From TrEMBL:
<feature type="domain" description="SH2">
    <location>
        <begin position="323"/>
        <end position="415"/>
    </location>
</feature>
<feature type="region of interest" description="Disordered">
    <location>
        <begin position="193"/>
        <end position="235"/>
    </location>
</feature>
<dbReference type="InterPro" id="IPR036860">
    <property type="entry name" value="SH2_dom_sf"/>
</dbReference>
<dbReference type="InterPro" id="IPR035839">
    <property type="entry name" value="SH2D4B_SH2"/>
</dbReference>
<protein>
    <submittedName>
        <fullName>SH2 domain-containing protein 4B</fullName>
    </submittedName>
</protein>
<feature type="coiled-coil region">
    <location>
        <begin position="144"/>
        <end position="184"/>
    </location>
</feature>
<dbReference type="InterPro" id="IPR000980">
    <property type="entry name" value="SH2"/>
</dbReference>
<keyword id="KW-0727">SH2 domain</keyword>
<dbReference type="Pfam" id="PF00017">
    <property type="entry name" value="SH2"/>
</dbReference>
<feature type="compositionally biased region" description="Basic and acidic residues">
    <location>
        <begin position="211"/>
        <end position="235"/>
    </location>
</feature>
<dbReference type="GO" id="GO:0005737">
    <property type="term" value="C:cytoplasm"/>
</dbReference>
<keyword id="KW-0175">Coiled coil</keyword>
């Protein structure tokens, strides 16, 4: 099963949901190792192909055109970095010029609007004054005598010239004020834009960058911690298996053992389980599907492949082990373990893979470990690299050695049957 997952680099979501956190981390670590191995293999192959292509190209183009890089006085390839060559403006200067230009354009726009308002006020002011003066002069001179109209006209023109002169002076004065205000406003806008840019760079950008950096570092540390734990667990299990010497290669103790067809095994819940009758193997040819898809197929698999390997039996006897259970769900397993002490366990036939599920009672809840039986050995899927010849070897091994270093799970007390007939009876009928 593990080899198939690593070959396909895919695990079914339902099967993934059956794994606990330690199994997931170990499995992801192994998948990552496989990814790196494939990547290195591809890179080496690509490197060799590229070297071969270069060699072939040199042979074909030995007399053809070639591209030569321009080199500097030091003999290295000549490189020009914009902004660092002589005559290039540095970034700070370009930024200063852009800010100053933006401030100048904004101040000029504001000055134009202000001048339009000022010019309208001046025009209206002198137009009204001229009209009033003209009306006054005409009224006064008209009353005196008609002959003085010419004098009135001259006086009117004189006053108009004086008013125009005053208007021109007023306009020049107003233009000078607007120009001065424009310069002052341009400086104010430049300073405000500069301060806003600096504040934005040193506050929002820095804070956002620091927050992103903090989250990234935290995520990296968490991933590194999980990967480190997975690697340590993998190495610990491997070293422990070598030291103990209790792996599948030790023996195929019971692989050649067969059960008598006429042997009768009675099913009950006593601690010393009586003998069970084992049916003869079916004469039909058994071909195992890629995945279990029904209870009937699982029962057929157990009878065809697991009974000959003495799965579920006590060592050197024909009694069903107290910890062995049939095809029960996770919820049913947890109900059986609900009122048990920490370290109590049971092994049930899995409905997700060709194998089993070890349900374990811990202080704060339950843990479930998948046991792969798709090959000629038994091992925890994604947690324990040890390979055991029989299920009994696996159980006995973890009565002395913990399953994971983080959880410290030891198999202390088996959880027996609470039903009659037992839940494993369909497997042996």
């Amino acid at each position: 099963m593990l080899q198939q997952i690593l070959r396909d680099m895919y695990i079914d979501p339902e099967l993934l949901a059956e794994l606990n956190e330690e199994q997931k981390q170990i499995l992801f670590y192994k998948m990552r190792e496989e990814q790196l191995r494939r990547w290195k293999e591809r890179e080496e192959k690509a490197r060799m192909e590229e070297a071969m292509l270069r060699k072939t190209a040199r042979c074909k183009q030995s007399n053809g055109k070639r591209v030569q890089w321009l080199r500097g006085k030091d003999g290295e390839v000549w490189v020009w970095v914009m902004g660092e060559a002589p005559g290039d403006k540095p970034y700070e200067q370009i930024s200063e010029e852009l800010i100053a230009e933006r401030a100048r354009q904004q101040a000029q726009k504001e000055a134009e609007e202000l001048w339009k308002q000022k010019e309208a006020e001046i025009t209206k002011k002198f137009r009204d004054a001229m009209a009033q003066e003209k009306a006054r002069i005409v009224a006064e001179k008209w009353k005196i005598e008609i002959e003085d109209r010419k004098a009135a006209k001259l006086e009117e023109e004189k006053i108009q010239e004086e008013l125009k002169k005053r208007e021109e002076e007023e306009r020049q004065k107003g233009e000078e004020q607007i120009r001065q205000q424009e310069e002052i406003r341009a400086k104010e806008l430049y300073l405000s834009l500069k301060q806003a840019q600096q504040h934005s760079q040193h506050s929002d950008d820095d804070q956002e960058w620091e927050e992103q950096l903090r989250r990234s570092k935290a995520a990296d540390e968490e991933r590194s911690h999980k990967a480190r734990r997975a690697r340590d667990e993998y190495r610990r299990q491997s070293l422990r298996a070598i030291q103990k010497g209790r792996v599948a290669g030790l023996s195929n103790l019971f692989q050649g053992t067969s059960l008598n067809n006429d042997q009768e095994i009675k099913l009950n819940n006593n601690s010393a389980s009586p003998l069970l009758s084992v049916s003869a193997a079916s004469s039909n040819i058994w071909e195992r599907p890629s995945r279990p898809f029904s209870r009937d197929v699982i029962i057929r698999w157990f009878k065809e492949e697991q009974i000959p390997r003495r799965a579920g039996f006590e060592r050197n006897t024909n009694r069903i082990a107290q910890w062995f259970h049939g095809i029960i769900s996770r919820q049913e397993a947890e109900e059986l373990l609900m009122n048990k002490s920490e370290g109590t366990f049971l092994l049930r036939v899995s409905e997700k893979i060709w194998g089993y599920a070890l349900s374990y009672r811990q202080q704060s809840g339950f843990k479930h470990f998948l046991v792969d039986a798709s090959g000629d050995f038994y091992s925890f899927l994604g947690v324990d690299p040890n390979r055991h010849a029989t299920l009994t070897d696996l159980i006995d091994f973890h009565k002395e050695e913990i399953i994971t270093s983080s959880g410290g799970e030891l198999l202390l007390e088996p959880c027996g049957q609470q039903k009659n007939p037992p839940d494993y009876s369909p497997l042996f009928e």
